[in-house]
Amino acid sequence: MLLEIKNLWVNYGGSDILKGISFEVEEGSIVTYLGNNGAGKSTTLRAICGLKPPASGEIWFNGKRIDGKLPEDIIKLGLGHVLEGRALFPYMSVLENLVVGAYLQKNRRQINSTLEEVYTHFPRLKERVSQQARTLSGGEQQMLAIARALMGKPKLLLLDEPSLGLSPLMIKEIGKIIQEIQKRGTSVLLVEQNARLALGIAQTGYVLETGEIVLSGDAKILLNDPQVKRAYLGI
Amino acid sequence: MGVTLSGQDVIQTIINGLCMGGMYILIGMGLTIILSIMNILQFAHGEVYMLGAFTVYFLCVLHGVNLYLAVLVSMFTTAIIGLLIERILLRPLKGVFMSYVCVTTGLSLIMQTAVLLSFTKGTKQLPSLWKGPLDVYGVFISKERIVAIVIALFLTLGLYIFLKQTKYGLAMTASAQNREGALMQGINPNVMSAMAMAIGSGLAAVGGALGGSIFNLDPYMGGLAFLKGITLIVIGGLGSIPGTVVGGLILGIAESVLALFFGSQMGIILPLILVIAFLVFRPKGLFGHD
What we know:
The complex is a heterodimer of chains A (235) and B (290).
Chain A: E1 3-12, E2 15-25, E3 30-35, H1 41-48, E4 56-61, E5 64-65, H2 71-76, E6 79-82, H3 94-101, H4 108-121, H5 123-127, H6 138-150, E7 156-160, H7 168-183, E8 187-192, H8 195-201, E9 204-209, E10 212-218, H9 219-223, H10 226-233
Parallel strand pairs in A: 3-8, 3-9, 6-7, 7-8
Antiparallel strand pairs in A: 1-2, 1-4, 4-5, 9-10
Helix pairs in contact in A: 3-6
Chain B: H1 7-38, H2 45-62, H3 67-90, H4 97-118, E1 133-136, E2 139-142, H5 143-165, H6 167-177, H7 179-183, H8 189-214, H9 221-236, H10 241-262, H11 266-281
Antiparallel strand pairs in B: 1-2
Helix pairs in contact in B: 1-5, 1-6, 1-8, 1-9, 1-10, 2-3, 2-4, 2-8, 2-9, 3-8, 5-6, 5-8, 6-8, 9-10, 9-11, 10-11
Protein backbone atom coordinates (compact mmCIF):
# COMPACT_ATOMS: atom_id res chain seq x y z
CA MET A 1 0.00 0.00 0.00
CA LEU A 2 1.25 3.48 -0.83
CA LEU A 3 -0.79 5.17 1.87
CA GLU A 4 -2.35 3.48 4.84
CA ILE A 5 -4.37 5.20 7.52
CA LYS A 6 -5.24 3.28 10.64
CA ASN A 7 -7.76 4.45 13.21
CA LEU A 8 -7.00 8.14 12.80
CA TRP A 9 -8.37 10.59 15.37
CA VAL A 10 -7.98 14.34 14.95
CA ASN A 11 -9.07 16.88 17.47
CA TYR A 12 -9.67 20.61 16.92
CA GLY A 13 -10.28 22.81 19.95
CA GLY A 14 -11.62 19.99 22.12
CA SER A 15 -13.96 18.35 19.64
CA ASP A 16 -13.17 15.29 17.55
CA ILE A 17 -13.24 16.06 13.85
CA LEU A 18 -12.08 12.60 12.79
CA LYS A 19 -13.27 9.62 14.82
CA GLY A 20 -11.16 6.62 14.00
CA ILE A 21 -10.77 6.79 10.23
CA SER A 22 -9.10 3.93 8.38
CA PHE A 23 -8.51 3.71 4.64
CA GLU A 24 -5.82 3.05 2.09
CA VAL A 25 -4.55 4.19 -1.29
CA GLU A 26 -3.11 1.56 -3.59
CA GLU A 27 -0.13 2.48 -5.73
CA GLY A 28 -1.15 3.76 -9.16
CA SER A 29 -4.80 4.34 -8.32
CA ILE A 30 -7.15 7.27 -7.92
CA VAL A 31 -8.98 7.14 -4.63
CA THR A 32 -11.71 9.59 -3.83
CA TYR A 33 -12.83 10.76 -0.49
CA LEU A 34 -16.34 12.19 -0.53
CA GLY A 35 -18.34 14.03 2.00
CA ASN A 36 -20.23 17.20 2.74
CA ASN A 37 -18.83 20.42 4.11
CA GLY A 38 -17.39 19.93 7.56
CA ALA A 39 -17.27 16.13 7.31
CA GLY A 40 -13.51 16.21 7.91
CA LYS A 41 -12.15 15.72 4.40
CA SER A 42 -9.65 18.57 4.44
CA THR A 43 -8.72 17.70 8.01
CA THR A 44 -7.75 14.22 6.86
CA LEU A 45 -5.47 15.62 4.18
CA ARG A 46 -3.96 18.13 6.61
CA ALA A 47 -3.23 15.29 9.02
CA ILE A 48 -1.53 13.25 6.30
CA CYS A 49 0.84 16.05 5.27
CA GLY A 50 1.65 17.13 8.81
CA LEU A 51 -0.17 20.46 8.91
CA LYS A 52 -2.41 19.12 11.68
CA PRO A 53 -0.83 16.46 13.92
CA PRO A 54 -3.35 13.71 14.73
CA ALA A 55 -4.43 12.95 18.28
CA SER A 56 -4.00 9.23 17.76
CA GLY A 57 -3.78 6.60 15.06
CA GLU A 58 -1.17 5.75 12.48
CA ILE A 59 -0.36 7.06 9.01
CA TRP A 60 1.97 5.01 6.83
CA PHE A 61 3.32 6.33 3.55
CA ASN A 62 5.45 4.19 1.26
CA GLY A 63 6.45 1.91 4.13
CA LYS A 64 7.31 4.71 6.56
CA ARG A 65 5.30 5.90 9.49
CA ILE A 66 4.69 9.65 9.02
CA ASP A 67 2.19 10.74 11.66
CA GLY A 68 3.72 13.32 14.00
CA LYS A 69 6.43 14.28 11.51
CA LEU A 70 6.92 17.84 10.27
CA PRO A 71 5.45 18.86 6.88
CA GLU A 72 8.85 19.47 5.27
CA ASP A 73 9.97 15.93 6.19
CA ILE A 74 6.74 14.35 4.93
CA ILE A 75 6.79 16.22 1.61
CA LYS A 76 10.38 15.05 1.11
CA LEU A 77 9.16 11.42 1.05
CA GLY A 78 7.24 12.07 -2.17
CA LEU A 79 3.95 13.61 -1.21
CA GLY A 80 2.34 16.47 -3.10
CA HIS A 81 -0.55 18.43 -1.66
CA VAL A 82 -2.78 20.84 -3.54
CA LEU A 83 -4.39 22.69 -0.68
CA GLU A 84 -7.98 23.84 -0.60
CA GLY A 85 -8.04 27.36 -2.03
CA ARG A 86 -4.89 26.54 -4.04
CA ALA A 87 -2.40 28.39 -1.79
CA LEU A 88 -0.54 29.91 -4.74
CA PHE A 89 2.12 32.59 -4.38
CA PRO A 90 -0.10 35.36 -5.76
CA TYR A 91 2.53 38.00 -6.52
CA MET A 92 4.97 35.60 -8.13
CA SER A 93 4.87 34.67 -11.81
CA VAL A 94 3.59 31.33 -13.08
CA LEU A 95 7.17 30.27 -13.76
CA GLU A 96 8.34 31.32 -10.29
CA ASN A 97 5.50 29.35 -8.71
CA LEU A 98 6.59 26.28 -10.68
CA VAL A 99 10.26 26.78 -9.80
CA VAL A 100 9.40 26.92 -6.10
CA GLY A 101 7.42 23.70 -6.63
CA ALA A 102 10.70 22.04 -7.54
CA TYR A 103 12.35 23.29 -4.32
CA LEU A 104 13.38 19.82 -3.17
CA GLN A 105 14.66 18.72 -6.59
CA LYS A 106 18.42 18.96 -6.86
CA ASN A 107 19.11 18.14 -10.49
CA ARG A 108 18.70 21.21 -12.66
CA ARG A 109 18.40 19.30 -15.91
CA GLN A 110 15.71 17.11 -14.42
CA ILE A 111 13.82 20.19 -13.18
CA ASN A 112 13.83 21.55 -16.73
CA SER A 113 12.54 18.31 -18.20
CA THR A 114 9.80 18.15 -15.54
CA LEU A 115 8.91 21.72 -16.46
CA GLU A 116 8.62 20.79 -20.13
CA GLU A 117 6.48 17.80 -19.19
CA VAL A 118 4.21 20.00 -17.08
CA TYR A 119 3.87 22.44 -19.97
CA THR A 120 2.69 19.65 -22.28
CA HIS A 121 -0.03 18.81 -19.75
CA PHE A 122 -0.89 22.47 -19.19
CA PRO A 123 -0.24 24.37 -22.44
CA ARG A 124 -2.23 27.28 -21.04
CA LEU A 125 0.32 27.80 -18.28
CA LYS A 126 3.10 27.95 -20.83
CA GLU A 127 1.29 30.83 -22.53
CA ARG A 128 1.20 32.68 -19.23
CA VAL A 129 4.66 31.96 -17.77
CA SER A 130 5.47 35.53 -16.84
CA GLN A 131 2.00 36.48 -15.61
CA GLN A 132 1.44 36.90 -11.87
CA ALA A 133 -0.47 33.97 -10.39
CA ARG A 134 -3.23 36.21 -8.99
CA THR A 135 -4.11 37.45 -12.47
CA LEU A 136 -5.02 33.96 -13.71
CA SER A 137 -8.61 32.74 -13.97
CA GLY A 138 -9.88 30.31 -11.34
CA GLY A 139 -9.37 27.30 -13.59
CA GLU A 140 -5.88 28.38 -14.55
CA GLN A 141 -5.03 28.94 -10.90
CA GLN A 142 -6.17 25.40 -10.13
CA MET A 143 -4.03 24.12 -12.99
CA LEU A 144 -1.06 26.06 -11.66
CA ALA A 145 -1.57 24.63 -8.18
CA ILE A 146 -1.63 21.09 -9.58
CA ALA A 147 1.32 21.78 -11.89
CA ARG A 148 3.32 23.23 -9.00
CA ALA A 149 2.72 20.09 -6.96
CA LEU A 150 3.77 17.93 -9.95
CA MET A 151 7.08 19.83 -10.12
CA GLY A 152 7.99 18.04 -6.90
CA LYS A 153 7.59 14.64 -8.66
CA PRO A 154 5.26 13.22 -6.00
CA LYS A 155 4.40 9.53 -5.69
CA LEU A 156 1.06 10.49 -4.24
CA LEU A 157 -0.85 13.66 -4.96
CA LEU A 158 -3.43 14.92 -2.47
CA LEU A 159 -6.03 17.08 -4.20
CA ASP A 160 -8.37 19.13 -2.03
CA GLU A 161 -11.54 20.13 -3.89
CA PRO A 162 -10.00 20.96 -7.25
CA SER A 163 -13.43 21.59 -8.78
CA LEU A 164 -14.40 24.26 -6.27
CA GLY A 165 -15.67 27.42 -7.93
CA LEU A 166 -14.96 26.25 -11.49
CA SER A 167 -17.25 26.19 -14.52
CA PRO A 168 -18.63 22.78 -15.63
CA LEU A 169 -16.35 22.87 -18.67
CA MET A 170 -13.29 23.52 -16.53
CA ILE A 171 -14.32 20.79 -14.08
CA LYS A 172 -14.35 18.33 -16.98
CA GLU A 173 -10.87 19.46 -17.99
CA ILE A 174 -9.54 19.09 -14.44
CA GLY A 175 -10.99 15.56 -14.40
CA LYS A 176 -9.06 14.72 -17.57
CA ILE A 177 -5.89 16.16 -16.08
CA ILE A 178 -6.26 14.01 -12.98
CA GLN A 179 -6.55 10.90 -15.17
CA GLU A 180 -3.42 11.96 -17.07
CA ILE A 181 -1.58 12.34 -13.78
CA GLN A 182 -2.54 8.78 -12.91
CA LYS A 183 -1.30 7.58 -16.30
CA ARG A 184 2.15 8.99 -15.68
CA GLY A 185 2.37 6.91 -12.53
CA THR A 186 1.30 9.27 -9.76
CA SER A 187 -1.37 8.02 -7.40
CA VAL A 188 -4.09 10.48 -6.44
CA LEU A 189 -6.17 10.96 -3.33
CA LEU A 190 -9.01 13.19 -4.46
CA VAL A 191 -11.17 15.01 -1.98
CA GLU A 192 -14.37 16.25 -3.58
CA GLN A 193 -17.87 17.46 -3.04
CA ASN A 194 -18.54 16.90 -6.72
CA ALA A 195 -19.26 13.17 -6.44
CA ARG A 196 -20.08 12.72 -10.11
CA LEU A 197 -16.64 13.95 -11.18
CA ALA A 198 -14.81 12.10 -8.43
CA LEU A 199 -16.51 8.70 -8.75
CA GLY A 200 -16.33 8.97 -12.53
CA ILE A 201 -12.54 8.90 -12.55
CA ALA A 202 -11.66 7.07 -9.33
CA GLN A 203 -11.22 3.34 -8.78
CA THR A 204 -12.08 3.36 -5.10
CA GLY A 205 -14.24 5.67 -3.04
CA TYR A 206 -14.82 6.42 0.61
CA VAL A 207 -17.72 8.41 1.96
CA LEU A 208 -17.15 10.44 5.08
CA GLU A 209 -19.90 11.72 7.36
CA THR A 210 -19.17 13.79 10.49
CA GLY A 211 -15.77 12.25 11.02
CA GLU A 212 -16.57 8.64 10.22
CA ILE A 213 -16.39 6.58 7.06
CA VAL A 214 -19.92 5.36 6.39
CA LEU A 215 -19.46 3.79 2.95
CA SER A 216 -16.57 2.50 0.94
CA GLY A 217 -15.88 0.38 -2.08
CA ASP A 218 -15.47 0.30 -5.83
CA ALA A 219 -16.17 3.72 -7.34
CA LYS A 220 -18.48 2.35 -10.06
CA ILE A 221 -20.58 0.56 -7.46
CA LEU A 222 -20.72 3.64 -5.23
CA LEU A 223 -21.89 5.68 -8.20
CA ASN A 224 -25.00 3.50 -8.33
CA ASP A 225 -25.50 3.23 -4.59
CA PRO A 226 -28.93 4.64 -3.67
CA GLN A 227 -27.56 6.33 -0.56
CA VAL A 228 -24.81 8.08 -2.52
CA LYS A 229 -27.24 9.00 -5.26
CA ARG A 230 -29.57 10.66 -2.83
CA ALA A 231 -26.96 12.47 -0.73
CA TYR A 232 -24.34 13.49 -3.27
CA LEU A 233 -25.67 13.23 -6.77
CA GLY A 234 -29.03 14.87 -6.15
CA ILE A 235 -30.99 12.14 -7.88
CA MET B 1 17.03 81.39 6.62
CA GLY B 2 17.34 83.07 3.27
CA VAL B 3 14.45 83.66 0.94
CA THR B 4 16.40 82.47 -2.09
CA LEU B 5 17.89 79.02 -2.31
CA SER B 6 21.16 78.50 -4.08
CA GLY B 7 21.84 75.51 -6.30
CA GLN B 8 24.23 74.37 -3.61
CA ASP B 9 21.40 74.20 -1.04
CA VAL B 10 19.12 72.25 -3.34
CA ILE B 11 21.75 69.70 -4.38
CA GLN B 12 22.96 69.26 -0.84
CA THR B 13 19.43 68.77 0.46
CA ILE B 14 18.74 66.11 -2.14
CA ILE B 15 22.02 64.32 -1.48
CA ASN B 16 21.37 64.41 2.26
CA GLY B 17 17.88 63.08 1.69
CA LEU B 18 19.10 60.25 -0.51
CA CYS B 19 21.77 59.38 2.02
CA MET B 20 19.33 59.30 4.93
CA GLY B 21 16.86 57.41 2.75
CA GLY B 22 19.51 54.81 1.93
CA MET B 23 20.21 54.30 5.62
CA TYR B 24 16.51 53.95 6.42
CA ILE B 25 16.09 51.48 3.59
CA LEU B 26 18.82 49.25 5.03
CA ILE B 27 16.98 49.19 8.36
CA GLY B 28 13.50 48.89 6.88
CA MET B 29 14.29 46.00 4.53
CA GLY B 30 15.35 43.79 7.40
CA LEU B 31 12.24 44.66 9.39
CA THR B 32 9.91 44.02 6.48
CA ILE B 33 11.55 40.69 5.54
CA ILE B 34 11.45 39.46 9.14
CA LEU B 35 7.86 40.62 9.55
CA SER B 36 6.63 38.98 6.36
CA ILE B 37 8.48 35.66 6.83
CA MET B 38 8.20 35.19 10.60
CA ASN B 39 5.08 37.22 11.22
CA ILE B 40 6.73 39.10 14.08
CA LEU B 41 7.83 42.64 14.68
CA GLN B 42 11.47 42.41 15.72
CA PHE B 43 11.52 45.08 18.44
CA ALA B 44 15.27 44.67 18.91
CA HIS B 45 16.00 45.43 15.25
CA GLY B 46 17.07 48.97 16.12
CA GLU B 47 19.53 47.53 18.64
CA VAL B 48 20.90 45.19 15.98
CA TYR B 49 21.53 48.33 13.91
CA MET B 50 23.23 49.95 16.91
CA LEU B 51 25.33 46.86 17.50
CA GLY B 52 26.46 46.96 13.87
CA ALA B 53 27.67 50.54 14.36
CA PHE B 54 29.48 49.71 17.61
CA THR B 55 31.16 46.69 16.05
CA VAL B 56 32.62 48.97 13.40
CA TYR B 57 33.66 51.44 16.14
CA PHE B 58 35.29 48.66 18.15
CA LEU B 59 37.25 47.33 15.17
CA CYS B 60 38.08 50.54 13.39
CA VAL B 61 38.52 53.21 16.07
CA LEU B 62 39.72 51.07 18.99
CA HIS B 63 41.75 48.49 17.06
CA GLY B 64 42.77 50.29 13.91
CA VAL B 65 41.14 47.98 11.37
CA ASN B 66 40.49 49.50 7.94
CA LEU B 67 37.03 51.16 7.95
CA TYR B 68 35.61 49.32 4.96
CA LEU B 69 36.92 45.99 6.18
CA ALA B 70 35.38 46.75 9.58
CA VAL B 71 31.99 47.42 7.94
CA LEU B 72 32.23 44.11 6.09
CA VAL B 73 33.18 42.22 9.24
CA SER B 74 30.38 43.94 11.16
CA MET B 75 27.88 42.93 8.50
CA PHE B 76 28.82 39.27 8.82
CA THR B 77 29.17 39.09 12.61
CA THR B 78 25.84 40.89 13.04
CA ALA B 79 24.24 38.49 10.56
CA ILE B 80 25.52 35.63 12.73
CA ILE B 81 24.09 37.32 15.82
CA GLY B 82 20.77 37.53 13.96
CA LEU B 83 20.99 33.79 13.29
CA LEU B 84 21.66 33.12 16.95
CA ILE B 85 18.75 35.29 18.07
CA GLU B 86 16.44 33.28 15.81
CA ARG B 87 17.82 29.91 16.85
CA ILE B 88 18.13 30.48 20.59
CA LEU B 89 15.44 33.02 21.45
CA LEU B 90 12.74 33.08 18.78
CA ARG B 91 12.43 29.52 17.47
CA PRO B 92 11.47 28.01 20.86
CA LEU B 93 8.54 30.46 21.11
CA LYS B 94 6.71 28.50 18.37
CA GLY B 95 4.66 31.34 17.00
CA VAL B 96 3.07 32.70 20.16
CA PHE B 97 2.70 36.37 19.28
CA MET B 98 2.88 37.95 22.75
CA SER B 99 5.97 35.91 23.58
CA TYR B 100 7.72 37.41 20.56
CA VAL B 101 6.80 40.92 21.66
CA CYS B 102 8.11 40.32 25.20
CA VAL B 103 11.30 38.56 24.15
CA THR B 104 12.34 41.03 21.45
CA THR B 105 11.48 44.05 23.62
CA GLY B 106 13.47 42.58 26.49
CA LEU B 107 16.32 41.80 24.14
CA SER B 108 16.45 45.43 23.00
CA LEU B 109 16.88 46.61 26.62
CA ILE B 110 19.53 43.97 27.30
CA MET B 111 21.49 44.93 24.20
CA GLN B 112 21.35 48.64 25.05
CA THR B 113 22.63 48.02 28.55
CA ALA B 114 25.29 45.57 27.44
CA VAL B 115 26.72 48.06 24.96
CA LEU B 116 26.44 50.90 27.49
CA LEU B 117 28.49 48.91 30.01
CA SER B 118 31.02 47.63 27.48
CA PHE B 119 32.21 50.99 26.17
CA THR B 120 33.61 54.07 27.94
CA LYS B 121 31.53 57.21 28.16
CA GLY B 122 32.04 60.14 25.83
CA THR B 123 31.28 61.10 22.26
CA LYS B 124 31.95 58.38 19.74
CA GLN B 125 32.03 58.77 16.02
CA LEU B 126 33.21 56.63 13.15
CA PRO B 127 35.76 58.09 10.77
CA SER B 128 34.43 59.52 7.53
CA LEU B 129 33.84 57.01 4.75
CA TRP B 130 35.61 59.35 2.35
CA LYS B 131 36.83 62.72 3.54
CA GLY B 132 36.14 66.00 1.88
CA PRO B 133 33.77 67.47 -0.67
CA LEU B 134 33.42 66.61 -4.30
CA ASP B 135 33.37 69.61 -6.66
CA VAL B 136 30.74 69.11 -9.38
CA TYR B 137 30.66 72.25 -11.54
CA GLY B 138 31.00 74.52 -8.53
CA VAL B 139 28.55 72.59 -6.35
CA PHE B 140 30.17 70.87 -3.39
CA ILE B 141 28.89 67.47 -2.40
CA SER B 142 30.15 65.56 0.59
CA LYS B 143 31.93 62.46 -0.65
CA GLU B 144 30.99 60.30 2.32
CA ARG B 145 27.31 60.77 1.56
CA ILE B 146 27.86 59.65 -2.00
CA VAL B 147 29.62 56.54 -0.71
CA ALA B 148 26.75 55.87 1.70
CA ILE B 149 24.20 56.17 -1.12
CA VAL B 150 26.22 53.83 -3.34
CA ILE B 151 26.56 51.22 -0.59
CA ALA B 152 22.83 51.31 0.17
CA LEU B 153 22.00 51.07 -3.53
CA PHE B 154 24.37 48.16 -4.03
CA LEU B 155 22.98 46.16 -1.10
CA THR B 156 19.36 46.83 -2.07
CA LEU B 157 20.04 45.64 -5.58
CA GLY B 158 21.84 42.60 -4.24
CA LEU B 159 18.89 41.68 -2.04
CA TYR B 160 16.46 42.18 -4.90
CA ILE B 161 18.47 39.88 -7.17
CA PHE B 162 18.76 37.31 -4.39
CA LEU B 163 15.00 37.27 -3.83
CA LYS B 164 14.17 37.17 -7.55
CA GLN B 165 16.84 34.92 -9.02
CA THR B 166 18.04 32.37 -6.50
CA LYS B 167 16.35 29.23 -5.28
CA TYR B 168 16.47 30.25 -1.63
CA GLY B 169 15.44 33.80 -2.42
CA LEU B 170 12.38 32.58 -4.31
CA ALA B 171 11.59 30.22 -1.45
CA MET B 172 11.70 33.18 0.95
CA THR B 173 9.43 35.26 -1.28
CA ALA B 174 7.07 32.30 -1.54
CA SER B 175 7.00 31.79 2.24
CA ALA B 176 6.13 35.44 2.71
CA GLN B 177 3.24 35.21 0.23
CA ASN B 178 1.67 31.96 1.36
CA ARG B 179 3.12 30.17 4.35
CA GLU B 180 1.20 26.90 3.97
CA GLY B 181 1.69 26.87 0.23
CA ALA B 182 5.44 27.11 0.84
CA LEU B 183 5.34 24.37 3.47
CA MET B 184 3.69 22.06 0.96
CA GLN B 185 6.62 22.50 -1.43
CA GLY B 186 8.88 21.09 1.27
CA ILE B 187 10.30 24.45 2.34
CA ASN B 188 11.52 24.35 5.93
CA PRO B 189 10.07 27.40 7.71
CA ASN B 190 12.88 27.45 10.27
CA VAL B 191 15.49 27.76 7.54
CA MET B 192 13.50 30.66 6.06
CA SER B 193 13.25 32.41 9.44
CA ALA B 194 16.97 31.98 10.06
CA MET B 195 17.76 33.43 6.64
CA ALA B 196 15.41 36.37 7.20
CA MET B 197 17.05 37.16 10.53
CA ALA B 198 20.60 36.80 9.16
CA ILE B 199 19.99 38.94 6.08
CA GLY B 200 17.92 41.54 7.94
CA SER B 201 20.49 41.85 10.72
CA GLY B 202 23.43 42.10 8.32
CA LEU B 203 21.73 44.88 6.36
CA ALA B 204 20.85 46.74 9.57
CA ALA B 205 24.50 46.53 10.66
CA VAL B 206 25.63 48.28 7.48
CA GLY B 207 22.90 50.85 8.05
CA GLY B 208 24.32 51.38 11.53
CA ALA B 209 27.81 51.82 10.14
CA LEU B 210 26.58 54.45 7.67
CA GLY B 211 24.60 56.19 10.40
CA GLY B 212 27.56 56.09 12.74
CA SER B 213 29.82 57.78 10.23
CA ILE B 214 27.37 60.65 9.87
CA PHE B 215 26.05 61.00 13.43
CA ASN B 216 27.47 60.17 16.82
CA LEU B 217 27.18 56.69 18.24
CA ASP B 218 25.25 55.98 21.40
CA PRO B 219 23.63 52.85 22.82
CA TYR B 220 20.16 54.31 22.37
CA MET B 221 20.51 55.20 18.68
CA GLY B 222 18.44 52.13 17.74
CA GLY B 223 15.16 53.51 19.04
CA LEU B 224 14.81 56.25 16.46
CA ALA B 225 16.14 53.95 13.73
CA PHE B 226 13.47 51.37 14.59
CA LEU B 227 10.81 54.06 14.39
CA LYS B 228 12.01 55.03 10.90
CA GLY B 229 12.00 51.39 9.87
CA ILE B 230 8.37 51.01 10.95
CA THR B 231 7.52 54.18 9.07
CA LEU B 232 8.98 52.73 5.89
CA ILE B 233 6.92 49.58 6.23
CA VAL B 234 3.75 51.60 6.68
CA ILE B 235 4.53 53.91 3.74
CA GLY B 236 5.87 51.29 1.36
CA GLY B 237 3.60 48.41 2.22
CA LEU B 238 4.49 45.29 4.13
CA GLY B 239 6.78 42.81 2.45
CA SER B 240 7.46 44.90 -0.64
CA ILE B 241 11.11 45.64 -1.46
CA PRO B 242 10.24 48.34 -4.04
CA GLY B 243 7.85 49.78 -1.45
CA THR B 244 10.56 49.91 1.16
CA VAL B 245 12.94 51.63 -1.25
CA VAL B 246 10.40 54.24 -2.35
CA GLY B 247 9.24 54.72 1.24
CA GLY B 248 12.82 55.25 2.37
CA LEU B 249 13.54 57.79 -0.33
CA ILE B 250 10.31 59.68 0.37
CA LEU B 251 11.06 59.78 4.07
CA GLY B 252 14.72 60.74 3.63
CA ILE B 253 14.12 63.51 1.12
CA ALA B 254 11.04 64.87 2.90
CA GLU B 255 13.03 65.06 6.12
CA SER B 256 15.94 66.90 4.60
CA VAL B 257 13.68 69.32 2.72
CA LEU B 258 11.70 70.05 5.88
CA ALA B 259 14.94 70.43 7.82
CA LEU B 260 16.07 73.04 5.30
CA PHE B 261 12.98 75.15 5.98
CA PHE B 262 11.92 74.35 9.52
CA GLY B 263 14.97 72.90 11.27
CA SER B 264 15.93 69.30 11.98
CA GLN B 265 13.38 68.78 14.77
CA MET B 266 10.77 68.25 12.07
CA GLY B 267 12.71 65.13 11.18
CA ILE B 268 11.46 63.43 14.31
CA ILE B 269 7.85 64.52 13.97
CA LEU B 270 7.48 63.81 10.27
CA PRO B 271 7.63 60.00 10.40
CA LEU B 272 4.82 59.96 12.94
CA ILE B 273 2.66 62.28 10.84
CA LEU B 274 3.31 60.12 7.77
CA VAL B 275 2.42 56.93 9.64
CA ILE B 276 -0.88 58.40 10.79
CA ALA B 277 -1.68 59.78 7.35
CA PHE B 278 -0.98 56.46 5.64
CA LEU B 279 -2.87 54.43 8.22
CA VAL B 280 -5.90 56.65 7.75
CA PHE B 281 -5.87 57.12 3.98
CA ARG B 282 -3.96 54.15 2.56
CA PRO B 283 -3.44 51.40 5.15
CA LYS B 284 -1.84 48.97 2.71
CA GLY B 285 0.92 51.44 1.85
CA LEU B 286 2.16 52.42 -1.60
CA PHE B 287 3.08 48.95 -2.86
CA GLY B 288 1.38 46.77 -0.28
CA HIS B 289 -0.62 43.68 -1.03
CA ASP B 290 -4.36 43.62 -0.34
